Fold each of these.
Amino acid sequence: MAQLPPGIYLITSFTRDQWYRAFIFVLTFMLYVSFHLSRKPISIVKGELHKHCAIPQDTELINYKKYANRQPMEEPCNKSSSGWEPFDKSNYKELLGALDYSFLCAYAVGMYLSGIIGERLPIRYYLTGGMFASGLFTAMFGLGYFYNIHNLWFYIAAQIANGLVQTTGWPSVVTCIGNWFGKGRRGLIMGLWNSHTSVGNILGSLIAGYWVSTCWGLSFVVPGIVISIMGIVCYLFLIEHPKDINCASTSTNNSKSYMNGSNRFKIQKPKLSTKETSKSQDPEMQYLLSDNENCVMPLNYNNGFCEGYENGHSAISFIGALRIPGVVEFSLCLLFAKLVSYTFLFWLPLYITNVDNLNAKEAGDLSTLFDVGGIFGGILAGIISDRLKKRALTCGIMLLIAAPMLYVFYAVSKIGLKATVGKLSIFCQFDTFSFHL
């Protein structure tokens, strides 16, 4: 018998279930990459919406004060060269900030609503609809360039709508990946998988930067088209649960499962012997299914944790979610980590433009180093948390390290471009750690 070709040997060395899990891992990864890809352009385009009016410098002069004494101060940039109305005014920081908090406030409200709505609908339909809507409203912002729209409320409305529909992504892909993967090596798996945020930011920066100086409207239209195409891919290929194609489930076998209408969120009622029931259960296992992160009920439950438990069909309630051990604590950690990461996400390119006097494209390319560091930091986070089995401790330590890094970054950014480049990648490795636990 002839020896199998290496490629065929590689294919046959993995089981059918393993191939499907690898496929879902890559597919959900790419789906959420497209979400962040469409979220990033606003930070790149800010440098074009309001151009930094730098005073020309003689390359032979090192000291600006000497130059100022020799040459009369030039007039400020005129209205036409200072950006896109209404962001060309002196209050441009407030106006650009209004775009950010419009998106983020809508995103915060929408995330709460999305969790309630999404768990009652099939993932594939819900995620596909959200991706099409995200593509529409992302492109809508860019259409302001082509139709010469200078009304601030048009751009704010586009940001609010986009913030709402963008919330369909995270709950859906997390639920899907939770259905397919258990908690074994959870840190490493989530570290690898959750690098989609950094990859999406990098691609979004590069795509938006390509057109930002020539036709910034395309910096939004193209990412809008990309996420819409990925919505089609989602509709055609996303498999919500292993049981849908008769794959082996990661669920515990000795339990009775009660499904809701979308067959995704389960309430498990373990079969325990009298001897076993006398032993206290692991706090994490009392409420959270160890394999697919579903709602697990303690046996002595009476009321309030999940709605309609007695009927066997339920989605977890808001109060019930808060009662899951660790939810409040890790939510607060993520709150402050996101405070920093979204500041960098939306403002880093403009900050680099003002500090180093780079154009919008160059600043956008340089800002990707923050996300490059995030990729390595997330993987390192997963490995450390798996090895130590102390997720809360490692999260706390890394966040404490990240705090002074902000001040160090501020200091070194004043030194010059090379120092800024190095510090960007180092800082993000610590800041992104808590995302992956």
Amino acid sequence: MAAADLEKAQALGKTDPSGAVGILHAIVKRDVSGEDEEGIRVKEQGILELGTLLQKTGQAEELAGLIKFTRPFLNLVSKAKAGKMVRALVDLFLDMEAGTGKEVELCKECIDWAKDEKRTFLRQALEARLIALYFETIQFLEALQLGTALLKELKKMDDKALLMEVQLLESKVYHGLSNLPKSRAALTSARTTANTIYCPPKLQAALDMQSGILHAADDKDFKTAFSYFYEAFEGYDSIDSPKAVQALKYMLLCKILLNSPDDVQSIISGKLALRYAGPEVEAMKSIASAYQKRSLSEFNKTLTVYKEQLVEDKIIKAHLETCYDNLLEQNLCRIIEPFSRVQVQHVANIIKLPLDLVEKKLSQMILDKKFHGKLRLLIVCLTCVFCAVLVFFAF
């Protein structure tokens, strides 16, 4: 009976998910005895099927409830199977990225359960997921404390895949703390570990992504960073991961920062990138257009229109500040080029920016030897009105 219900739920999964969820709920709630091997097998499969369906239909709260509800049943199956089921359900829940606010709490509960049941490997795997959650919620201190303890433990064992995952997370945390030397050291350790084992495409893509981020942040080596982002994009694309579009964004950003905004269009119209057309790609296309036209107003307008895609992405935001500075310098050079002497107020009026900001930027450009000139402060009439005048010697 239970097996027939399971087959019916599997058949309904594609056409009527809500109906399938109802049948699977009934299977999961049935009591089974330790001697009923068939019943245990069906219920075990039903739990996993229900978890998958709840993830697909976006029912995060129900999936969290399922993880807690199934704990008594796990005593009826072997430790290996129980560990595999808990890991699978937790992964399904966390991969939803639903933002329920219960992710950290649920993960900690599962870790405590694993400790009580003395399931070491499961606890370690869950702790690795907790580190990732701490990183995503910007709890860097907690992530480092847990990561340091877990790394010491994993180095004594032979779980190289999990060791590499934790080392990669450590690199991300240090990057979040702007400690680039330690971030690079942790990434090197992760790559060394990855060379000794088979690395799944998802983890390999994550390694390439982090390598690209560090090359762009540390060395400003955008050419090498582009190569890593391209590898990450191909890796994520091969497994249909939503992170592929993020790698594509970073690829386009590198081309802009390399002063090659023309290449952005050719990449977007490529065979691989066409399927990722959307606001993320349009945002980068608009930034490239503004950069090509050397238009500060268009650049600022793009940041306002595509705030979620650009400003809320920390990696993009950090490099867009560099883009803005470059554009501002190009615009100022274009404005002052015809003059041998000009009032800074006049420059500020043309570029439509506050006077103090323009003065500060021109002073910085003179100190950086972007052009040779002097800022002179003149007193006009008896009212002591100060007027800044920029005198040029040569570009």
Amino acid sequence: GEEERRQLAMELRERESKVNHLKNRFQVLISRISKEDENPDGEMTHAQYIVKTAKEREMLQVQGDNLDAEIKRVEKEARKMDKTLAILKGCNVQYKTQFKKA
């Protein structure tokens, strides 16, 4: 029971690390794209600014949707792990009571 809890906690930390890694990678891509969109002299026309803002808004929306989906998936998995842990604890209690009776 305790070993499985540690293993599940370690797995959760690994997945959180992967999420953070993906967030960082996304930020690097955003910065590269924004550098490519600028004029060589660094100034933007109004139309370019509107297009850039729309792209950023769309990318942020997609990122938010992906993060929401990931959060829901991880929360669902955590609930399943909690249920499994509760079942294991129940089995462990039953197992201990069998030894006390004997």
Amino acid sequence: TLLKAVVSTQSTGKKQLEEMRCQLGERDAHIENLNEQVAALTSQCHGLQRDVTQLQQNESDTDKGTELENVELKTQLDALREERDSLSSSVFILEEQVNQLNGD
């Protein structure tokens, strides 16, 4: 009976060992799956970071373009103001001449 008990214990131990190996295999497969998910998410993050960097560069380029455009518009505005002032001065002179001619 002692031999039967030892054999039974060994058999039970082998079954438990086999169950543990099976559980370890399942755990390893789960870990591998999680590692693949982490790799996919990491890749997505890198892609998003590249997109963010590109958008920031585009925004910077747009800001530089807008700044240059604003300088050009200011220059044009200044030129138009000078032209307006010159025309206003000419109109004033012409009005004075008309008034003189009319005898005012």
